[in-house]
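Case study 2.
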Amino acid sequence: MMLVVLGLVACTGVGNGQAGNEAEASAEPVAQEVSAVSEAVLEAPQASAAFAGQWEACEGTTSPDECSRYVLLQQGDRICGTWSYIATSDEFSGRVIARAASPTEARRTHICGRPGSETDTECEDGWQRIDKPLRLCDGKLSDRMRADGSCVAGYEAVPVADEVRGALQAQAWVQECLARDPDVAHTGAGS
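Prediction:
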């Protein structure tokens, strides 16, 4: 998309200091159209980012605040995000990294957070290596499998607030995660 934007701007003469009034007048509608297309592309889900978004599992909860959730970003086969759940009135949360093998299959490879059933490694101490599933089954997210290999897909896609997505994207660890594999300082149980 960036090439198209640059190409349209170059064709209009905008920004090169040599555009006359006629070019400037015709450039304004083109710039508005480019802006609208750019916004639509940013808002449209990408087929290659099937895991991106907010996913919630609320069955058995009495409040939306008690839902288990993933908030995931995806760039190519890299999936980076956060997880959280409530157990015995305590909140457990942390970070997760996964690699997509297909549009519906991924493996969680690294995790950290408040020690509980998901991890024994605090994020300040590094990453715990894991090898656990993350799948999309009939439009729902699954982070566990039955013995026969079928999905236990309890996470529904829900709209992710712009401020939630923006705050996650702004975190240094997410930017690093989307660019390369993490440095693993600790390998804990569940490896």
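The chain has four helices and eight strands.
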